[in-house]
Structure formats: structure tokens, C-alpha cells
């Protein structure tokens, strides 16, 4: 079995402790290399009947013996094992001799009987029948490792069936590979899953029969059965995705089916053809995270954790290449887990631009949990059973493959992996085999590299002793002295180095060789070097200095002899809860704790890691004092972290800090408001080890804030001493070159299709899609056609896609005909009849300059690519993806609104006309507007304050999708969501970024960020899926107006411009400047990025709405005063406003 790496769950109310199941079968299931199933495996042809109500199994098996074990001229004798509670009832084609003693060796998780079978000469098969009961109760997780699952070696019960090698449920021959065909009969409402291909199925009134076949060599035969709902979908033309759930949940199944296809496509491209014909997600009946050949077995809570899809799930899919495709010889070390972690967990982090952070966390775990006594060579790793074994077997091995990649380069690294996979597919491979492949492929000798990292324990410790520069005729010469401080001989290292040159925006990046205890390196540079960073992106496996690691929970859990200080003055119930927390950790975290009360101590020891428990603890102040630089304070029962305030009566907190006098030791303060919260902390905190601070809220302890303190004093970073000018100081830091991920996950959403939609709608032929023009009508026709092709039902008037009405928009247009385009994906839950979720985007724009135009742009086409062809394109793409697949609980209504640029005419009309789906039954409205230029910005969500749950929903989406999200509570009344908010409907707007082409002819398709469209689409999909299937309504925090939203007459447009591009993510008082328009009054001042406007024309600016209102009162050419903040100082300037 392979285990699923557990990840932190920050968004779910219920959590489970995920860990690795120790693979007991590894001890005795060591197998020989195999050539092919036909001549190198024991082939089992089985007819199996499972009787769950009696915990009984009945089997008839025809076994074909591999050719190399047969004797051609005499009898063949073979030994096998079988579960002791299974009785052999019939034997044909061979003689069976039971051995007398029942084997109960510790290596076997179940008692087994041993048999000798004797085949006549020239016979290669025999048949036997056996039956009996198998019922090993699921046992709780091991106390020695807090990330462990409950476990059973095998079980047949009413809840479900789990049979594996550990069960000895079929005849097991020593050191043997198997292939098989299983004909499995289960009760009528059950289903069964195994490796390989589903050949057939047949259902009667009382039974269900399925046939599974696996021809490739295997090290185990798994059989899982239960009352499953089965879902299927092609992953490729040759591979099928399956989902087996213990209840109906099509939405959840669809997520797994789609994600399976994405990762199989990625790994097919990266490594070569996926080795099996299927991959299945199977829901277990107890909490597990197992990976088997061609399927994974996840517990009922695990399978529903939203983060699993893009964390542990690809890890299990990839195990079908490494571990279940290329097998491991565990006697010579388990290379599979480290390589799988690198190409799954690390790769996902790389794709989210967090590869550096992931590597630092890996090195931090090694530093925090692995001391000399707990260290061991990688070649001795088989499976993880503790934090230290995980840090070596997964972490160090993962870093080994990262360093190998850095040495070879991406292209050669991938070619090597593909060749290794092809050579050893369905065979056993070792580290030595990998070394031989590398040596052959590179024509170099990597033996010392392997000996250093695989065969010996330990890690290098690095120290930057000095860095100084002196001028030369051609620039400067940098002299860097490095020292390896670990005991023993020095490592042979290739170290990345970043040198920051005065005036250069990009750092100079280089690699240096280090193979001596103390070594000086000289580097010639064209400009003056001002700072040097050694291994700035954590590319080398090494023991981190404490100053490179933020204080974190992991140091508390990894400490050798930590001190726990209880609050003597706490309420007795709280004090008891803290005592139980400490006792729980002492049992589950493999650490020694000394537990005392705060009155027993005069001052904190500086030579130990210390846990300070309780709000009332007299030693909480030293922790706070150590965190003053992080803007942490505690006054009047309220904790402040940065700008956020948390009252102790409602929150549980964790703060960590380095000991001021000994940075190798850590102070940790844990405090909660209720005994039940303390008990919950005991369970939760081991899953948050990398964090420096945590804040939880409520009785169920929902995590609402977390983070890591910044690193400011790394010993591998130095400002460079200038020999020609010792007084020279520079704070300049250049940027490092961006890195590409080793592979990219194919998106569910198509950049090409979305760009095609934008290109079409923002072309010159549509003349800017102005209200009341034939071109706008053509755009509506195009959208209706796309809705129809996507599979949406018409939601407009008279069974058409159009909602049509007339409206007087004033001179010069007068009364015009308007059309919203409405498509419907019907809901499936009768209890939510007439309830809907609205997804909207406006399709109109300014045409040739109506109703809003800058004076010098009159008569020019305003193409509106970003505003808002981008929103329409994402909405259409979502419809294409979900309409053929989803059966949402409540109806999803897609609306392309008209008249947004003319005071929200289309959205206001829809909100005022209930039709078949009343406004009061809309759970939420999700609006897409100006979403086409995301770049490196977070996706901004306006209006999250309109429902209490929105902030938490989008925080969770950001975590699950790996997409930064900026939630803004306020709605600025600038787009169609406002019409719904005024009608009492919670509504948000998805927004990408502000830019100078807003409402200008420069808003063209060539400036669209295609990859950003995919990110916004993913955020929209996650929100849509959650809201369409959430049973309860949202908690509305707005009040509907008495007469709903009203269509307003066209207001006086703004005549003047200051030329600022606001920062829409800013939520403080005033308006923060993101950018300024060329040639504008703002540029002449000059205003800078980050300036905060607070007063204009003697009127205070509280937010964007008041800023816009003030501008509407001013005239071109008017001179007035502007007051703004810069770096904490108030600046007042006189400005001359220009015509807009």
C-alpha cells in the first residue's frame, strides 16, 4: 500500500487525523523481479462469493504456476500461506500437504497456515476451493505517530469489505508476483473493486457479479466491496475514471472524475503512458488514505476535504508510476515515496509558485524533528511511522531528486525519469538501478553523489563567514568565504548563490562548488555587489540554521525535553483541560515533556523549548515581548496581530517566538476560551506544524488566521563589505529569476476558447457593443447561440433565451429595446424548487463613446475586451464545462446583462421581474466584470460583506485552488451585483485589476491575460459548485430596500479627472493609489504607488464611492487642494483638474 500524505484542513469544520498506514506487508512481501505475467507470475483465476452478513468468503481458485518454478522431469513442490481461519475444502490437479504449525510470527498481521502443494511433472496449474470467516476489527491509530490511520489487516462486515496481502485471503507463495482474474459475487445492492480492468458485470434480483482482471505483475491482490454508488467518465481514450461513493453525491464525484483526467493527462505527458486502464477513487468505511494499483481508498471524511483534490490525490495517482508501476525492493531502500512526493506534492507547490516555500518546510521538518539519534541513511527507509522517519524518507529523498534535477537540468531530468520508468515498468527497481540508469544516460559517474546523499546519514551545516568586494579594472571582485560546520568530512556541494548588484533590478545568479571545510570563492562582477544570498531558494538539502526558520509549532513538537507551564490561576476546568492536552501530546508526539504550573517557576529557562498554556499564564508576557517586532500585543483581553484584533472570550490562539537569548529554542503560547476548545486544539495543532501563529474562532475552532513570521536575519545572507568605501551601505535587493514548474496541469477551462470569445466580441465589427445598436443585438445573438450549444435551457420570454423590454434612456437615444440573455441549468432537488444561483456578466460597452467617454476619445471604438467581454467569456466557458455534467441541487441561472454601462439597466430589470425564479429565492449572485487582466494580482472579490459566509467561502476556495484571493467586504456599487444587493440578495463581483485603459479605446484583446482567465474561472467554478449544492441559505447581512432596486435615470457624468488608478484591494480609510495615468494631474504632482488620498476640495475621502462623488461636483480647470498620506506623513498639494 501507499499512503496519502495528509494536508492541513483550514476550512472545514470537521477534521480527521490523517497519517500514513504502516505497510505491514512490506516486511514479508519482498518479491523477485518479473519479466511478464505469462511466465513470471502466479496467475489466479478466482470465483469469489462474499457474504458480508456472516463475514464469510468462499473461493475457488485455479492457479497457474510461473514457468521458471516448474521442474520439467519431476514433481514440483511449492509452499504457500493462507489465513488460518480459511479451510481448504477441495483440491484438484495436485497433492496438498498441510504443515502442522500455525504461523503467528510478529511479521504477519494475521495467523496463517502453511501448506505444501506438489504438482506432477509437466503440469503447470492446480485448483483449490476454500472458505471461512475474516473479521479483524478496525484498531485505533498508533499513539507513537499522531498522523496515523486506524487499521485492520482485513475485514468482511456489513459495513464493507477490505482484503489485501496483509489478510492472506488467497494462497500466497514466497517472494512471488501475481496476476489475476476475479469473478466476484456480492449482494445485489453492493459493488466490488480491485486492480486492473472491469471486464464485465451482471446483476440479478439477489446478487451483483463483477469481473476484474489484471494481467500485469502485481505484488498484491486487493478486494474492496461495499454499498457503492459508481460514477464513470473517460479520462483518456484508453483510461477510465471511476468514483465509488457510499452514498449519492454526483457533484463530489464529478470533481474527482475531472481531476483524475487532469492529472493523468499531465503525467502521461511528463513520464509516459499511464500503466493501467483505470484510476478509481473509492470511499472506505473508516478513515484511510491508501493508494493501491489503479485506485485509492479514502475515508469518508478524507474524501470530502476540499484540499485533497490538489494535494494528496495526485500523490496517489502518481504512485501508479512509482511504487505500483515500477516496484520497490524494500530491502534496499524505498525511493518511491520521495520521488512521488517530489513529482506530486512539490510539483503542485511549484505550479502555485510555492516551490521555494515547500522546500523550506521540508528542510524545517528535518531540522526540527531529526537529531543525531533519530537520523538514518535514506537507503534504510521503508515506510514512515514517525515525524523523523517522514523527514528522512519523504523529505530528504525528495530533496535528493530536486538536487538531481538541478544538476541535470529539467529536460535531461525528465528524459531520465521517462527512460527509468519504461525500463522498469512492472519490475522491481532499487536505488542502485536508478544510479545505473543515470550513469548510462549521462555517461558520468554519479556514484559519489549517491553515496553522499543515499548511503550516509546527516546533512551539511553552512555558515557564511564573510563577503567583501574590491574594485578592479573591469568592475568588482567579490570574495566570499563559506564554512561547513557539521562534524565529519565536508560534503561535495553545488550551491546556488544570488548576488545583488547596485542599480541592477535582477540579481546575478550563479552556482559555486563547495567541497572543503572552509572555502573562499572569488567572483568577477561588472557592477558593485551590495548583498549576497547563499542558497536563497532552498535548493540544497541541509540542516537549517535557526535564524533561517521562523518560529513554528514544529519546534514545540520536535523538542527533545520541552517544558510545559500550566496556568495555576485558571478556572479548574480550564486547568484540567490544559493538563489533558499536555498528557495527550506526551503520548502521541514522541516527545518528553516536563509539566509544571507557573507558580513553581521564577523565570523562563533559556536552554529549553517552552510551552506556555493559558490566557492567565504569568509567563505569557515574555512571549509577547519577543513578538513586538511582529506587531503583536495583548491588552484589555484582546490580542492584536498586525491590524487584526481577537478577543479572548471568542478565540483560541497559538503564538510562537524564538527565545531572545537562545534562538535555537522556541517559546509557544497556546490559549483558549473553553475546555472543549482546548481539547480540540490538542487534536488540531499537530496538523498546523509549519505555522508561527494561529487564530481559531467559535466552539468548533474554525481557523480564521494563520501565518509564518518573516525571516530577517539569515546567516547565509550578508551585506557586502566594500574595501574601497567601508561606509557604503545599500538596501537594494534585486529580484530572482522566475522558475517554471516541471510540468503544468492541463486546465479544465480552455484559454483558447475564452480568448476566441473575447476576440469575437471585442472585434471592430461589433463597434464597442453600444446600447441600442445593431452590433449589441448581434452580440446577444452570439451569446444565446453559445448558451444553446453548451446545453443550457432558455430562460427568457416565450421559451427563448431573451428577456426583452423597452426603456427610455434619455437623449440622444430615447426609447431603446433591451435584451438580457438568460440560460438555465435546472436544479435536481425538489426541496429547493424555484431557488436559484445567478451568475452574471454584462455584455454591453461604450461603443463609440456613450454614455461615458473621455473628451479626447469621442468617436473612437471602445472595444471593451476586459470590460466586459472577459466576463462573458468566463461565464460561457463555465456553462460549457458544467452543463453537460452537473446536476446541481438548485437551479443555476446564467445571465448576460445589457445596459450595465447605463446605470445597471439589465440587472435592475431582472431583479424586479421574478419570472419563474423569484428574486427572494436567489441564494446569491456572482458577477464577473473586468476579469481579463489578472497578471500577478490576487482575484479580488467585492461585496463579501453581503453574507456572513462569503469571506470563509472564498478563503477556502483560495486555499483549495491555490489562487490568491483578496476579499473586500464593501460593494462599491459599480456593477450588476449592486442591483441584487439592493433587492436583498447577497452578491459579489469577481474583479482582476484596475488599469489606464478602463473605459478607453485601449481596452483591446491583445492585453488580456489568458492564464488569468483560467484562475478566475476556477474561483467561479468552486463558488458555483458550493452555492448551487449548499442546502441552507446564506446568512444575509444586508436589508432589502422597500421597493427593491429602482432603475435610475441617467445621472450627470463626471466631467473631471485626477488621473488616478485606485487600488481596489485597499480596505482602509481613503483611496490608495495603484497607478497614475500618463500626462494627468496625478502624474504631475507626482502621486506614487501606495499614496492614500484622504481629502479633496475640502471634502474627506472615506472610500471609492465618496471619491467618485466628490469628483462629480468639480469642473474642468478648477484649482483645488488634495491631501494624501505617504509613508505615514500628510502631504497637501494644489492641483488643476483636467477635463475627463
Question: Total number of β-strand segments?
Answer: 58
Q: Estimate what percentage of residues fall within beta strands.
A: 25-35%
Spans where pLDDT lies below 50 across 5 or more residues: 1-37
Outline, from the CA principal axes?
globular
Helix content: 10-25%
**What oligomeric state is this?**
single chain
**Biggest sheet: strands, sense, closure?**
9 strands, mixed
State the end-to-end CA separation: 68 Å
Roughly how many Å is the radius of gyration?
33 Å
Average pLDDT reading: 90
* Class from secondary-structure proportions: alpha+beta
The number of helices is: 22
Feature tags:
alpha+beta, 9-stranded mixed beta sheet
Amino acid at each position: 500500500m501507499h499512503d496519502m500524505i495528509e494536508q492541513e484542513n483550514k476550512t472545514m469544520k470537521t477534521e480527521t487525523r490523517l497519517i500514513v498506514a504502516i505497510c505491514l506487508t512490506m516486511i514479508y512481501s519482498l518479491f523477485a523481479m518479473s519479466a511478464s505475467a505469462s511466465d513470471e507470475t502466479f496467475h489466479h483465476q478466482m470465483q469469489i462469493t462474499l457474504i458480508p452478513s456472516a463475514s464469510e468468503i468462499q473461493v475457488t481458485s485455479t492457479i497457474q504456476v510461473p514457468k521458471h518454478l516448474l521442474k520439467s522431469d519431476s514433481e514440483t513442490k511449492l509452499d504457500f500461506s493462507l489465513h488460518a481461519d480459511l479451510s481448504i475444502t477441495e483440491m484438484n490437479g495436485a497433492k496438498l500437504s498441510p504443515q502442522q504449525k500455525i504461523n503467528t510470527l510478529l511479521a504477519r498481521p494475521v495467523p496463517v497456515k502453511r501448506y505444501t502443494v506438489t504438482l506432477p511433472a509437466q503440469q503447470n496449474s492446480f485448483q483449490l476451493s476454500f472458505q471461512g470467516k475474516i473479521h479483524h476489527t478496525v484498531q485505533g491509530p498508533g499513539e507513537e505517530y499522531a498522523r496515523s490511520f486506524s487499521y485492520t489487516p482485513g475485514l468482511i462486515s456489513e459495513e464493507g469489505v477490505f482484503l489485501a496481502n496483509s489478510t492472506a485471503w488467497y494462497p500466497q507463495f514466497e517472494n512471488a508476483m501475481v496476476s489475476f482474474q476475479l469473478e466476484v459475487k456480492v449482494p445485489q445492492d453492493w459493488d466490488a473493486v480491485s486492480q486492473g480492468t472491469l471486464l464485465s458485470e451482471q446483476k440479478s434480483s439477489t446478487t451483483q457479479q463483477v469481473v476484474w482482471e489484471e494481467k500485469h505483475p502485481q505484488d498484491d491482490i486487493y478486494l474492496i466491496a461495499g454499498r457503492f454508488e459508481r460514477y464513470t467518465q473517460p479520462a483518456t481514450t484508453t483510461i477510465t475514471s471511476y468514483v465509488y461513493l457510499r452514498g449519492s453525491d454526483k457533484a463530489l464525484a464529478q470533481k474527482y472524475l475531472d481531476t483524475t483526467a487532469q492529472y493523468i493527462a499531465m503525467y502521461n505527458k511528463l513520464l509516459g503512458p499511464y500503466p493501467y486502464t483505470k484510476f478509481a477513487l473509492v470511499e472506505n468505511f473508516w478513515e484511510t488514505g491508501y493508494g493501491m494499483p489503479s485506485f485509492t481508498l479514502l475515508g469518508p471524511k478524507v474524501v470530502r476535504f476540499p484540499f485533497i483534490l490538489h494535494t494528496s490525490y495526485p500523490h496517489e495517482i502518481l504512485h501508479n508510476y512509482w511504487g505500483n508501476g515500477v516496484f520497490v525492493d524494500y530491502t534496499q531502500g524505498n525511493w518511491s515515496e520521495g520521488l512521488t512526493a517530489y513529482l506530486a506534492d512539490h510539483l503542485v507547490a511549484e505550479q502555485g509558485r510555492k516551490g521555494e516555500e515547500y522546500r523550506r518546510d521540508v528542510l524545517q521538518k528535518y531540522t526540527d524533528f531529526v537529531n543525531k539519534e533519530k537520523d538514518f541513511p535514506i537507503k534504510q527507509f521503508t515506510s514512515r511511522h514517525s515525524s523523523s522517519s517522514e523527514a528522512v524518507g519523504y523529505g530528504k529523498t525528495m530533496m535528493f531528486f530536486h538536487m538531481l534535477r538541478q544538476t541535470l537540468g529539467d529536460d535531461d531530468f525528465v528524459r531520465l525519469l521517462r527512460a527509468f520508468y519504461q525500463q522498469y515498468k512492472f519490475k522491481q527497481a532499487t536505488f542502485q538501478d536508478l544510479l545505473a540508469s543515470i550513469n548510462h544516460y549521462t555517461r558520468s559517474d554519479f556514484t559519489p553523489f549517491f553515496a553522499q546523499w543515499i548511503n550516509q546519514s546527516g546533512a551539511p551545516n553552512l555558515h557564511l563567514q564573510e563577503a567583501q568586494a574590491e574594485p578592479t579594472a573591469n568592475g568588482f571582485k567579490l570574495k566570499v568565504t563559506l564554512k561547513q560546520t557539521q562534524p565529519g568530512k565536508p560534503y561535495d556541494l553545488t550551491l546556488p548563490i544570488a548576488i545583488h548588484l547596485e542599480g541592477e533590478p535582477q540579481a546575478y545568479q550563479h552556482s559555486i562548488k563547495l567541497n572543503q571545510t572552509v572555502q573562499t570563492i572569488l567572483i568577477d562582477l561588472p557592477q558593485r555587489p551590495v548583498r549576497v544570498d547563499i542558497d536563497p531558494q532552498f535548493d540544497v538539502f541541509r540542516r537549517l540554521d535557526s535564524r533561517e526558520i521562523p518560529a513554528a509549532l514544529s519546534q514545540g513538537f520536535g523538542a527533545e525535553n520541552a517544558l510545559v507551564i500550566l496556568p495555576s490561576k485558571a478556572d479548574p476546568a480550564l486547568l484540567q483541560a490544559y493538563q489533558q492536552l499536555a498528557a495527550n501530546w506526551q503520548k502521541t508526539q514522541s516527545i518528553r515533556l516536563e509539566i509544571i504550573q507557573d507558580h513553581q517557576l521564577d523565570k523562563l529557562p533559556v536552554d529549553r523549548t517552552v510551552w506556555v498554556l493559558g490566557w492567565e499564564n504569568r509567563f505569557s508576557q515574555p512571549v509577547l515581548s519577543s513578538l513586538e517586532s511582529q506587531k503583536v500585543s495583548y491588552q484589555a483581553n484582546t490580542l492584536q496581530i498586525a491590524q487584526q484584533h481577537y478577543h479572548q472570550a471568542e478565540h483560541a490562539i497559538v503564538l510562537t517566538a524564538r527565545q531572545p537569548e537562545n534562538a535555537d529554542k522556541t517559546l509557544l503560547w497556546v490559549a483558549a476560551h473553553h475546555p472543549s476548545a482546548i481539547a480540540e486544539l490538542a487534536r488540531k495543532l499537530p496538523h498546523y506544524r509549519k505555522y508561527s501563529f494561529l487564530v481559531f474562532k467559535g466552539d468548533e475552532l474554525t481557523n480564521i488566521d494563520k501565518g509564518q513570521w518573516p525571516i530577517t536575519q539569515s546567516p547565509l545572507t550578508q551585506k557586502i563589505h566594500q574595501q574601497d568605501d567601508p561606509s557604503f551601505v545599500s538596501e537594494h535587493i534585486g529580484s530572482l529569476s522566475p522558475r517554471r514548474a516541471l510540468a503544468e496541469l492541463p486546465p479544465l477551462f480552455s484559454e483558447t476558447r475564452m480568448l476566441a470569445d473575447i476576440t469575437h466580441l471585442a472585434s471592430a465589427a461589433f463597434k464597442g457593443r453600444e446600447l441600442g445598436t445593431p452590433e449589441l443585438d448581434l452580440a446577444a445573438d452570439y451569446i444565446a447561440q453559445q448558451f444553446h450549444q453548451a446545453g443550457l435551457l432558455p430562460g427568457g420570454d416565450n421559451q427563448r433565451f431573451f428577456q426583452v423590454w423597452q426603456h427610455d434612456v434619455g437623449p440622444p437615444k430615447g426609447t431603446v429595446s433591451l435584451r438580457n440573455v438568460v440560460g438555465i441549468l435546472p436544479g435536481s432537488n425538489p426541496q429547493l424548487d424555484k431557488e436559484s444561483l445567478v451568475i452574471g456578466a454584462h455584455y454591453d460597452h461604450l461603443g463609440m463613446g456613450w454614455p461615458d467617454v473621455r473628451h479626447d476619445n469621442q468617436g473612437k471604438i471602445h472595444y471593451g475586451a476586459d470590460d466586459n467581454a472577459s466576463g462573458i467569456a468566463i461565464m460561457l466557458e463555465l456553462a460549457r464545462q458544467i452543463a453537460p455534467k452537473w446536476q446541481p441541487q438548485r437551479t443555476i441561472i446564467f445571465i448576460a446583462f445589457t445596459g450595465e454601462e447605463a446605470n445597471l439597466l439589465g440587472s435592475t430589470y431582472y431583479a424586479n421581474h421574478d419570472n419563474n425564479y423569484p428574486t427572494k429565492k436567489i441564494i446569491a449572485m456572482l458577477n464577473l466584470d473586468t476579469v481579463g487582466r489578472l497578471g500577478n494580482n490576487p482575484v479580488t472579490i467585492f461585496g463579501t460583506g453581503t453574507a456572513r459566509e462569503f469571506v470563509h467561502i472564498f478563503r477556502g476556495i483560495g486555499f483549495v485552488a491555490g489562487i490568491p484571493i483578496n476579499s473586500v467586504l464593501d460593494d462599491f456599487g459599480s456593477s450588476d451585483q449592486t442591483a441584487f444587493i439592493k433587492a436583498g440578495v447577497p452578491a459579489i463581483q469577481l474583479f482582476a485589476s484596475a488599469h489606464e485603459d478602463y473605459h478607453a479605446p485601449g481596452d483591446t484583446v491583445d492585453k488580456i491575460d489568458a492564464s488569468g482567465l483560467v484562475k478566475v474561472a476556477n474561483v467561479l467554478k468552486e463558488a458555483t459548485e458550493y452555492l448551487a449544492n449548499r442546502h441552507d441559505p446564506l446568512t444575509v447581512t444586508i436589508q432589502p430596500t422597500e421597493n427593491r432596486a429602482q432603475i435610475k435615470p441617467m445621472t450627470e457624468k463626471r466631467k473631471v479627472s485626477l488621473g488616478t488608478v485606485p487600488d481596489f484591494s485597499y480596505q482602509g480609510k481613503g483611496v490608495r493609489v495603484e497607478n497614475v495615468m500618463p500626462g494627468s494631474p496625478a502624474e504631475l504632482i507626482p502621486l506614487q504607488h501606495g499614496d492614500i488620498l484622504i481629502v479633496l476640495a475640502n471634502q474627506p475621502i472615506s472610500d471609492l464611492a465618496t471619491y467618485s462623488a466628490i469628483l462629480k461636483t468639480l469642473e474642468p480647470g478648477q484649482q483645488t487642494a488634495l491631501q494624501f498620506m505617504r509613508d505615514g506623513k500628510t502631504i497637501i498639494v494644489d492641483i488643476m483638474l483636467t477635463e475627463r
